[in-house]
């Protein structure tokens, strides 16, 4: 397995969002001349609006609109001065009223994102540490990351996992003054809550624990004076808590508010807070609207509004209870999430509901894992009981149809979200369309000729290669050296293969795909805990093999059904094995499969380029050089040819026990020095099995004694090469002695000797695999971009490693 390149997170988001936009559920424009909040017009179709975050409907309140309009005519569209110098005079009234709401000092910010960027670096000192809840809002995470430049440690815990939080506190408490736990009060996707009271009890146990709550989605619809979910639990704000509320969303205006009861910290933040100091202030219209809303929040009317919303929330909850719809988290917030699993099912259901006259949001990556896509429904005071009932009826009708359209099942969605399975009464399983599937757990159960017809020329996974791998990676002492193999061949009614592949279930280091800097940090932890951040993966191919692991006849009219059948079988395996990731890998760029995988809950990552040489039709060195570009010929004459006589070259098909030890040590040197590809080691018996197998041979570079420290010839490089049934030469792995590697150009010499050996033996192709594409291109290889598609149970490990990467 070669190192998957560091993937650009934004590229992945761009691809997911682009697919959603093509499906007509993202980047839409509202149209029409009037917007009332109850309905929204999209593509000239008027829809009941179940996607707002204005839960109380205050953005349509006549008092707010009148105040905003009057402010524009009296003061203009903006007040173009920094608040550090002078605030618009309406600000004093707003600050007084919001302070009265909370009963504590407040700071008004332009919006919550800028507020976090301003407050977090001011509040968190260099002696502090930060622990992020995995699902805390992106704006908080982004602001916290800026402190990595000040060497403030930033840790992450799984969502609402207090046991994990306590472990982090114990770890950090001896070296840091304060430990800031940053979380949302109410989470914006599933509508679930932070365990505020349990967190307070934990802070009583650990006085160093401080809290930073982003409660913008808990604002206005609950709490005294509409001060939000967190305040509804606390009633009073302790000094070790910083709280963010909002003047937008449910409040009905614009801006955000920081509440801080610690006078010293409040003064520090207010005096200088980055964008709080230099950014433009709220427009007069926004301030005036916020004042009008604050007056409502300070009156008894706010409780009437909250009660009216609560009636609608209770109605929606009661209606959902009578259905089989997969509600992810039952609570009393205005946010509801109905799981669809795959993005394509989410697209289908959203579009069906829009045709029925209802607008709902799509919850999609990166807000949720790709396979945890769903529809996010928000209830507001705009929604009337009759349309709430109609929405539930429409979802009940269209949910099973969306599942049928997209080849998924209710059971699948329940398993994805860890919900109890409720029988729908109708089978939604994928129809096989007469396809036959052969599923085996050993290559020995599969016809040799049939498998080699499909895969004989692909890497180390012809029939004999897989028998070799099964033998090597079984009955070993270490967990990571034992793999399960799963083979799939799907045929049509005429017994013609449409699809074939194999998967392995194995223990991986989760940082195998991470930058070297991240792996270095994790490896220091593994000195005491060898299995830290490791988990089982279900991957196409294996950690040993590279190449096109999927045979797919896209000329066959049923190939889509074959792929769906494969996903169904993998889902069954997932249920048995519970891997943390499912991986399809080693694909070239291709739009059709790219769209298929994205729609079915996988996101794309770039892999290293694949390298092959297909032209071995030459008789000698001059003939070989004539196949190279002028630049590559110069490279050969400068960096390869002058060093060839430094070595004695041996081609071995059998090796001794002593050589096994030596070659294994050279292989381990490469593995341990290559944290860019951070894998577990292979069992030493691998080399004995290679020696026993006629398909393997070893190209050994023995450095002549004149160049060694003790003046004795020693092996300093070895290439482990496989000859498959398709006349392809596969240099699968390399071992080197790093004491001599650079000075004597050992790696380049191994590459050249591999090309030379393949040409001498009359083979047709060299499959150089992945990594070191630049070096392999210089010796004549063709370089091809490769992709993998990954489906995760959650984003925690990936986001944790992103947080650990100090290069970002």
Automatic annotation (TrEMBL):
Entry-linked Gene3D superfamilies: 3.40.630.30, Aspartate Aminotransferase, domain 1, Type I PLP-dependent aspartate aminotransferase-like (Major domain)
Cofactor(s) required for function per UniProt: pyridoxal 5'-phosphate
Keyword vocabulary terms for this entry: Transferase
TM region positions: none
A Pfam family per the record: Aminotran_1_2
SUPFAM superfamilies, A to Z: Acyl-CoA N-acyltransferases (Nat), PLP-dependent transferases
GO molecular function: pyridoxal phosphate binding; transferase activity
Protein name (Swiss-Prot/TrEMBL): Aminotransferase class I/II
Taxonomy of the source species: Bacteria, Pseudomonadati, Bacteroidota, Flavobacteriia, Flavobacteriales
Top-level division of the source organism's lineage: Bacteria
Keyword Transferase: yes
Domain (BioF2-like acetyltransferase): residue spans on this chain: 656-771
Keyword Zinc included in the entry's annotation: no
Domain Aminotransferase class I/classII large per the UniProt entry, residue ranges: 54-394
InterPro entries, per database record: Acyl_CoA_acyltransferase (IPR016181), Aminotransferase_I/II_large (IPR004839), AON_synthase_class-II (IPR050087), BioF2-like_GNAT_dom (IPR038740), PyrdxlP-dep_Trfase (IPR015424), PyrdxlP-dep_Trfase_major (IPR015421), PyrdxlP-dep_Trfase_small (IPR015422)
């Amino acid at each position: 397995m070669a190192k998957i390149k560091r993937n650009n997170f934004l590229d992945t988001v761009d691809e997911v969002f682009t697919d959603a936009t093509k499906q007509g559920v993202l980047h839409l424009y509202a149209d029409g001349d009037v917007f009332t909040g109850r309905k929204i017009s999209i593509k000239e179709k008027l829809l009941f609006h179940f996607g707002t975050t204005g839960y109380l409907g205050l953005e349509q309140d006549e008092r707010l609109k009148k105040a905003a309009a009057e402010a524009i005519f009296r003061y203009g569209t903006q007040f173009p001065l920094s608040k550090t110098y002078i605030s618009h005079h309406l600000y004093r009234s707003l600050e007084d009223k919001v302070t009265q709401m909370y009963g504590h000092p407040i700071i008004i910010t332009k919006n919550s994102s800028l507020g976090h960027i301003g407050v977090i670096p001011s509040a968190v000192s260099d002696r502090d540490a930060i622990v992020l809840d995995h699902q805390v809002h992106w704006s908080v995470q982004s602001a916290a990351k800026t402190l990595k430049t000040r060497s403030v440690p930033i840790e992450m815990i799984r969502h609402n996992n207090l046991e994990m939080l306590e472990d982090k506190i114990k770890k950090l408490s001896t070296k840091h003054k304060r430990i800031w736990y940053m979380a949302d009060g109410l989470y914006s996707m599933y509508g679930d809550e932070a365990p505020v009271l349990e967190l307070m009890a934990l802070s009583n146990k650990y006085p160093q624990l401080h809290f930073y709550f982003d409660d913008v989605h808990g604002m206005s619809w609950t709490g005294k004076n509409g001060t939000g979910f967190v305040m509804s639990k606390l009633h009073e704000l302790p000094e070790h808590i910083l709280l963010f509320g909002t003047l937008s969303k449910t409040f009905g205006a614009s801006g955000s508010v920081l509440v801080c009861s610690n006078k010293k910290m409040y003064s520090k933040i207010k005096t200088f807070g980055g964008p709080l100091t230099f950014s433009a202030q709220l427009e007069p219209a926004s301030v005036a609207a916020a004042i009008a809303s604050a007056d409502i929040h300070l009156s008894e009317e706010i409780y009437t509004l909250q009660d009216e919303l609560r009636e609608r929330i209770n109605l929606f909850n009661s209606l959902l209870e009578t259905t089989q719809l997969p509600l992810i988290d039952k609570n009393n917030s205005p946010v509801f999430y109905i799981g669809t699993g795959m993005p394509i099912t989410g697209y289908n259901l959203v579009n069906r509901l829009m045709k029925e006259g209802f607008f709902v949001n799509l919850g999609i990556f990166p807000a949720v894992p790709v396979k945890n896509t769903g529809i996010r429904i928000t209830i507001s005071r705009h929604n009337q009981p009759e349309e709430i009932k109609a929405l539930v009826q429409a979802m009940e009708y269209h949910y099973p149809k969306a599942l049928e359209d997209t080849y998924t099942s209710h059971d699948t969605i329940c398993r994805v979200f860890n919900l109890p399975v409720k029988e729908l009464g109708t089978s939604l399983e994928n129809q096989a369309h007469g396809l036959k599937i052969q599923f085996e757990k050993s290559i020995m159960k599969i016809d040799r000729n049939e498998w080699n017809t499909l895969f004989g020329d692909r890497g180390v996974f012809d029939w004999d290669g897989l028998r070799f791998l099964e033998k090597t990676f079984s009955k070993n002492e270490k967990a990571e050296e034992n793999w399960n193999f799963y083979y799939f061949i799907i045929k049509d009614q005429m017994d013609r293969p449409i699809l074939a592949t194999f998967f392995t279930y194995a223990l991986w280091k989760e940082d195998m795909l991470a930058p070297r800097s991240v792996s270095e940090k994790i490896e220091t932890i593994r000195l005491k805990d060898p299995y830290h951040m490791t988990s089982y993966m279900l991957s196409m191919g294996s950690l040993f093999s590279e190449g096109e692991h999927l045979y797919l006849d896209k000329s066959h009219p049923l190939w889509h059904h074959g792929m769906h059948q494969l996903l169904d079988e993998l889902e069954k395996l997932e249920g048995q094995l519970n891997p943390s990731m499912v991986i399809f890998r080693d694909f070239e760029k291709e739009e059709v499969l790219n769209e298929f995988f994205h729609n079915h809950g996988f996101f794309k990552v770039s892999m290293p380029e694949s390298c092959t040489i297909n032209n071995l039709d030459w008789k000698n060195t001059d003939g070989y050089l004539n196949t190279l570009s002028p630049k590559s010929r110069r490279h050969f004459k400068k960096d390869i040819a002058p060093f060839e006589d430094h070595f004695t070259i041996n081609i071995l098909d059998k090796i001794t026990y002593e050589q096994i030890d030596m070659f294994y040590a050279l292989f381990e040197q490469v593995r341990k020095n290559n944290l860019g590809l951070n894998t577990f080691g292979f069992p030493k018996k691998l080399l004995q099995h290679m020696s026993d197998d006629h398909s393997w041979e070893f190209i050994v570079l023995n450095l002549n004694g004149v160049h060694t420290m003790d003046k004795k010839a020693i092996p300093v490089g070895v290439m482990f090469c496989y000859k498959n049934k398709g006349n392809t030469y596969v240099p699968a792995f390399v071992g080197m002695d790093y004491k001599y590697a650079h000075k004597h150009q050992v790696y380049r010499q191994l590459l050249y000797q591999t090309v030379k050996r393949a040409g001498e033996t009359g083979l047709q192709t060299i499959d150089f695999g992945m990594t070191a594409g630049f070096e392999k291109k210089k010796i004549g290889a063709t370089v091809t971009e490769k992709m993998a598609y990954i489906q995760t149970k959650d984003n925690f490990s990936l986001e944790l490693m992103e947080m650990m990467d100090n290069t970002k």
